[in-house]
Protein 1
Amino acid sequence: MADLFVIAYEDEFKAEEVRLTLAKLQREHLIELEDAAVVVKNKDGEIKLKQAVNLTAAGAASGSFWGLLIGMLFLSPLLGAVLGAAGGALGGALSDIGVDDNFMRELGETLQPSTSALFVLVQKVTPDKVLDEVAPYGGKVLRTSLTKTDEAELQKVLDQRGVKPETV
């Protein structure tokens, strides 16, 4: 089971920087992410979701490949590719893995304008090494799925690093 962490940042770009840092740490096998998404509330108050993987584009790409392959069998590769891409894009758009988009939008509404939040589902982590890398970015913990004991321990570690989580 994955643990959810939602951390808010005081500008529109910091959450994306932290997500890139986490991606680097994942390549180093220090963390295993199930999902990492960024919500930005711009200066006009508009909410934008930035998913780690664009499922619609990924579905269209795989669908066009399989459509092309099947189309070649029936001597109509172009039609197969077009139909496959359309079907794959539809399937990708209907797929929702990781953090629920509606939850991210609802929490994004609570952000101040010109800020961002990082939503992370973590499968496995080497806490001390990951915290050393992400602590310099600061941020406020908005939500976690940890037990109260684990959340208190996280609070203690973050306090030692100068990051003050919000109480929820």
Protein 2
Amino acid sequence: MRKADPIQVRPRLRLVRAFTYFVLILGAITAVFPFLWMILTSLKTYGEYALRDPWPKALTLLPYRDLPPTEDVVVDLYPIEEGTWGGAPQSAQPLLEGRIPIEQVSTPVAEQLSRKGEAPPLEVLILAADVTPDVEGYDTFYLTVGSRVIQQETVRVRLGEGWKAPYYINAPDMERWGPQLIIVDNDPNHFVVRKTWRPTVMLIFNYIKSWCEADFARYTWNSVRLTFISVTGVVVFSTLAAYAFARMQFPGRNAIFTAFLATLMLPEVVTLIPNYAIVIQLDRFFERVLHIENAWLNNWTALTIPFMASTFSIFLLRQFFAQIPDELYDAALIDGCGHLRFLLQVVLPLSRAPLMSVIVLNGIWSWNAFLWPLIVTSDETWRPITVGLSKFTMEAAAEVHLMMAGAAITIIPILILYFFTQKQFTEGIATTG
């Protein structure tokens, strides 16, 4: 037969390779796009999201984040006509307002906006809800930059006491959003606006607000504890079971392992109701016999113990353990090692890569668990961050920017885990056959 000309084959291979790269790049962009949309949306204000702006305007202001404070601008406040704030209670209505041009607050920002053709006059609107110098109250100002509305709430205190942080920030020295307000004298009708811009705080404000409103601190701590307990149990029991299937001889070993693998074909929803029924019976047994209430339901036991037997993890480790040469075990046996010592001193040190794969995979599965924790918990005591995020999405409703900030908070720990373990994770998958 006549062989193909290498010169003719080479362009075909290049074309196939180029097409393969194109498909892979297109798939990567498709997979990354929702993540980028979530991050960008989490940095926007409500107005920017409603107007479908593709880019948060705070990012365009980052070059001015290091502007030092310059001279102060005094703002006089004037009474507001009563009843102009939508029927809000009198205690919640601002009493005074004042306006100053944007040029007096941040000249570089005004120049940048002017170069972009945004010529309409921009003003800082300052609203005072409490004008009593002896009583602490909230002062709110809004700075409109194009379609962006920036809001800050600060606590007003008497002269000399210094600044207290807003309610959503614990640290008293935290940078505040936008130009800073300070009181210049005992007359509560005068304020000072410093010419300082804080776009960094603008970018993380949604994250701070979501973290505080949804009590993500409690949910995150719950998820960390549950993930640690679950992954620890999976590693211990999967290692022992995988070693038994790979290195120990007993009747029916292959048949049991085959039946064990068959459970991978069962959808999680199929086992949901039986698992819940078992947990209910266990909870009743502990309450009736041992007089322990909520030993399983609404407790860490129901959230972790049922999932410590991971079929996939056992299969993954068993495949790697089976590749270890028998000569190593024979040499260890001559030195007086039993199965347990051989497992701890020989097998596990050689199995760092597959063990890391088991830790990463089960850590992701445990962290992302939603339906089962939602069923077996009734309050926030042990609810993980996924259930907390679901509750927050119902409360946030139309505030999609806050929902996306909460979602970003939820996935940050998993991204950090994978970033530091991706080499071992890939190696573990590749070496387990």
